[in-house]
């Protein structure tokens, strides 16, 4: 049996593969090819058959599934023993974890438990499975760092956004699910009050995102960002600076420590283009920048730019957006 | 309750970003650090400062806390401990280690051994990640090796009603906030949603002068010559090459119209 690269997916009930999961399968496939490796995928959650099926259709050679009612939400104490079992079953040396909200718990704990090592924000894998090294983002994306490992256990690698293409889906390509044996765990951490279910659309799924930054000059002008987003059928986002100043809410923050968005158009309005921010939006199909400073770094990332005061440009854009004939 | 707050001294990421934004960020001859001519300051990791703030708010809320600030790092790393004591930490420990800059697993091993020695630590608070290498490995590895609870992305820490064997933690999650109960001992990593940390008081600054950090050596906790679990081999400054079309026009109105016309032409807009 050939060695495996393992993709570790935690899936929500009834969900399909997320873009991040598909990218992880693509990265695993790219690494496996030419190195004589096969791709395994472990799916952990409840009601996850759709994810398991799509993983096989997108090229997983083995699919391991842990499906139980108590796995309906992520709990590290419950998930880690199952991930450990999946790694043991596949003898994986390289484990790829798609980006997601639970990385900060899952990735280092798994590495520490197995006497392995982990790196977050991986943009490139080098070497072979026995001697892998990685390139990862550092300083909010301003730099990349090359790491190598000195640990007996597996390398647990969390990917940066959009570093791999989703593998093509071949309908009907199927492999039998291998069940991962449940493990008896009494969690040390339990949810007392869950977050209110999200009402309405998510920023991460928006096709148009209009984000404002310090260039707006004052909190009340953020309403113009909201108006333009609404007029374009999109959603409003924000730089971390104005979220810290409470001009916008944390849920609107785009960037390394906020939301990662991949819209068709991203408007960066009064935003300088710090790499911390660009880490959250640089994979948009088209970036539009409005800034008074023609030297602002945002113009290095943008496809289209307007050099002008955003407070003058915003009313014009809002008017034009509301008038398709204009 | 004994609360240990772990803090790291980092190269100011805003300073590094500033260099990167203007295309002037360069890697020095070692290949593993930046050549910024010493103009970028080293500061306390902002997330760690917020972890200390979380500890101080717990004490302000009436929980009987002793707060110990800890850093692991080279000669100057102890600088940030002065700020921690000035903000309100009772005690400061500097574990001297020239190797610890990028390997969170090594730091977690050292901290786990120190927590074992201190024997009475109930709660470890740290930042969600270092704002330099953005890895966030330390809290998870530490919790794992201590057999402690782990809560990440905390935006607030409070006493758990009716027991002193647990804490109540508010977490920032994609949908907003959730509240969890974590059994002690626990490791809690704090995110920026916690809000602004306080400024040191003048009384605190006096205390900082009277409370020098206790110095320990990493080799008391890990074997000398131990290789890094995750080893930084090289830093690279990625190339960002812009292809921006600047929309020209005699006034703002024509520029805005030119932009919208191009976006509609490319089929990027539905309105």
Structural features:
heterodimer, A: 326 residues, alpha/beta, Rossmann fold, 2 domains, nine-stranded mixed beta sheet, five-stranded parallel beta sheet, 9 helices, 26% strand, elongated, B: 271 residues, two-stranded antiparallel ribbon, 7 helices, 28% strand, globular
Order of helices and strands of chain B: EEHEHEHEHEHEEEEHEEEH
Radius of gyration of chain A: 21 Å
- Alpha carbon gyration radius of chain B: 22 Å
**Count of folded domains of chain B:** 2
CATH architecture of the largest domain in chain B: 3-Layer(aba) Sandwich
Span from first to last CA of chain B?
Answer: 58 Å
Provide the spatial order of strands within the biggest beta sheet of chain B.
9-8-7-10-6-1-4-5-11
Care to describe what's here?
The complex is a heterodimer of chains A (326) and B (271). Chain A has 326 residues and is α/β, with parallel strands linked by helices. Chain A contains nine helices and 15 strands. Helix content of chain A is 26%, strand content 26%. In chain A, the strands form two sheets. A nine-stranded mixed β-sheet of chain A has the order 7-6-5-8-4-1-2-3-9, with helices on both faces. In chain A, strand 1, helix 1 and strand 2 form a beta-alpha-beta unit. Chain B is of the alpha/beta class and 271 residues long. Chain B folds into two domains: 219 residues, HUPs (Rossmann fold, 3-Layer(aba) Sandwich); 31 residues. In chain B, the strands form two sheets. Chain B has a nine-stranded mixed β-sheet with strand order 9-8-7-10-6-1-4-5-11, with helices on both faces. The model of chain B has no long low-confidence stretch (mean pLDDT 93). At the A-B interface, helix 4, strand 5, strand 6, strand 7 and strand 10 of A face helix 1, helix 4, helix 5, strand 7 and strand 8 of B.
